[in-house]
Amino acid sequence: MKTIYKKLLIFLLLLPIAAFAQGTLSGKVTDQASGQPLPGVNVVIQGTQNGTSTDMDGNFSLSNVKRGDKLVFSFVGYKEVVQNYDGQKSVSVVMQEKASDLQEVVVQVGYGSVKKKDATGSVTTVSEKDFNRGANVTTENLLNGRVAGLTVNTSGAPGSGSEIRIRGGSSLFASNDPLIVIDGLPIVNTTNTGSTSFLASLNPSTVESITVLKDASATAIYGSRAANGVIIVTTKKGGKNLSFEYNFQYGSGKLVKTVDVFSGDQYRALIADRLPAKVASLGTANTDWQDAIYRRTDLVDQSATLRGNLFKTIPTRLTIGRTYQEGLRLTNEFTRNTVGLSMNPSFFDNHLKLRVNANYSNETSRFADGVEGTAIGFDPTQPIYDPTSPYGGFFQYRSGDGTLDGSTLSPNVSRNPVAQLLQTFDTGRNNRTFGNIELDYKLHFFPDLRVVVNGGFDESNGERRKLMGRDAGSAPSNANKPFGKNELDLGLQRNKLLDTYFVYNKGINDFNFELTVGHSYQKFQEQYLYQGNILDPNLSDQFPEADIKTDVVLIAYFARTNLSYKDFLLTLSYRRDGTSRFDNNNRWGNFPAAAFAWKLKDALFKSSTAVSDLKLRLGYGITGQQNFPEPNAYLQKYNTGSGTSQYYFGPGPIPIGIAARISPDLKWEETTTYNAGIDFGFANNRFTGSVDAFYKDTKDLLVDAAIPDGSNTSNRAYQNIGSFTTKGIELTLNANVIKTDRFNWNVNFNATTFQRKITELAYHSDILTGGDVAGTGSPVLIFSEGYTPYSFYVFKQLYDANNKPIEGAYADLNRDGIKNDDDRYIYKNQDPDLTLGFASTMNVGNLDFSFNLRASIGNHVFNGVNASQAQYALLQNGAALNNLPSSVLDTDFTTTSNVLHSDIFVENASFLRMDNITLGYTFPKWLEGKASLRLSAGVQNAFVLTKYSGLDPEITNNGLDKTIYPRQRSILFGANVKF
Fold this sequence. Notes:
By secondary structure, this protein is mainly beta. The strands form 15 sheets. It has a 22-stranded antiparallel barrel. A five-stranded mixed beta sheet has the order 10-15-16-13-14.
């Protein structure tokens, strides 16, 4: 009996301890519709920070759980689930998608964010799961072809920048680049010394989402720089749960296409037929010079990301990355090392939120000269190497005794392009630090009001050195005797930002009101140092010389209010911007905007199960432009001669000051935009999309135009003259075509059509632009009222009875009986009639397959390579013989000047491009379930279908193809490991 009493006493003593005992709960979370496991679901004990997230199989394990605790399961797009813990060892949780999961998506806008369902402007967000796969070395390529109205045109050079355009741009002479904002810091769209691109410093693996603001009602809050749209880049934040991710990608690239020229044997036959007296000048080789200047390439891209809760208080992310990419041109390579840190803790019961983003990058590059034009024209019967040559053992046209001092290069002939690449050591280095610290404080005594202070900093230090020996035939020379090159350029760019604003948010029944009021200050500084070529025996004493740019300062006051009442939304914004680029009388610009939206789903289809989203949007706004090449044009300046431009009086140069031109009355270039759109979703938002129509009118263009003689120290100066318009329609469609337990198929389709037209130019006079096709005074692009910018200005080619072009024979369009420039006409342009994007992602169990297609229909290119090089008279160039594009056989053209501006060289450059194909397989329980492993293989730039005869129909030079850096085709292999 005593024993029973003792046991009962012990039981009673342990009972309260057992009641408060802590246990470990494990379980699995699945999707109700498909039964598939849900990875990344947040599992948190209600009222605490104790939590975890599900793995790739939807499994989780959470310790320190007490009886009576409530576990909250949450995931974007799904209804929250609350589960009671009563001591059970495991639990199965089924989560259901929200009826309108798309509407809960948060999109970034200027100085804040808004739910997709409440957005009133034309805004598109692309998140990480929808980014383009493949070799995306620079950030902008993550969304190429994904957003209606956005084009991204990237060169083939490693780490190179892109021509980014939203709705075609808004200016003729000022910048057409969109404003890019990284974590609240607007950055400069200029590339520093030693760098390949202003976006090359950002590691794409750190990017969480990219939001594109397209219409003025969305962009006007940024005022002074938003005329060409805004791209907001948001990087990944820290996490509360410890995780590690490693990404590896290897690529092997090759040349896809070259310009068709005569082979060595074909060329010998051609010379024997056309220039028999020059047969003795031919060599015995069969050299494909285009093939010789290129190579097979390697790409290695790695990144490692560690996330966790530092000191159990500070959610932190640390990403380390390294990218090595080779270019097709011999010696061309790009290396980037990056470190990214993000911290986003909250204090005082979430009243104070701190966001810290810091990024460091080190870029090293070896640049390569553009020798494509030389390779096309170099004699294919000559060898690459010549063991008797004093010029590094490379073949060069020369004379003399065979020694370096006793030899002279032949004048006015091309130099060996392979030698130029291998003997030029053009290296660059750029160190960049950028980031921001943001404090967001919700007042304790007035929680409806928040105060936000955002300080940003961006500094880039670069250098570029060019080295060439005396034995380099392409080095600078005196009397055709090279003296080599040793140059060093240094560059510093600095950008400082301070934003301060207040946000007041109040909801009363069906009425919600948000007001944002703030001030912005941003300062840009640039300075450069040029050493000059210290091997030049005639180098001026003025070297090294410094170039300290005038600081550019932007100050702004802004306000925005978001009003909602039941199913109606109204957004009003205003920004007053000041810039140091203009004088006091014109320094400030005013940029208002308004947008209205009506949730038709709530008003007219509330009970409908078929219609899950329907919203009408109307927007209006004015944005500004002040980014033109002369930041202090309104000031009277005096320039002294540079180290390469001086006046000589007597034996030496004399520094003098020359009055520079002045543009005293410049003011803001302004763009007014009207936008109407409709967002829709069907079948529980399984099918979603939007249609937008827009019209943009840009006035007071910043133009470098002619002025009356004697009115200035130049015959040209910047003025506000002219206008042009852009109008278009955009369509976006997203669909979960198939969604089952084992098979999911998601597609994205977008289409854009737009038309640009110049409505007024300075003095109503046409402006030839775009550079020369061949030689001085041979531009082929024109600005003309009533036409698209950069239209082709050409002669109308005449043909014989056999449809063969007649050299120098053009239509007498003005019927005056004289063939001259008055007979040229405007014919076609670079703008497409329609651009299309299509992306597909399929998942079958653990297997995934995706591809990206882009198409451009109706765009045209002027083939400047054929126009300037496909004529028989060019077979001989001084002491050398030149090769020709084989297209000369189709035209039999002889003299370049007779045919240079013929419309025969305007070609339809419509294309369909497969940007990427990727196949992957995921092992969800790798390393005994401790990690997941995804292996992938793919092809970058898989194919291009086009009728264009040049290297590539997708060029950036306003439709003028004068040879490009070709894009390589790469085979890719990748691995992703998550712990």
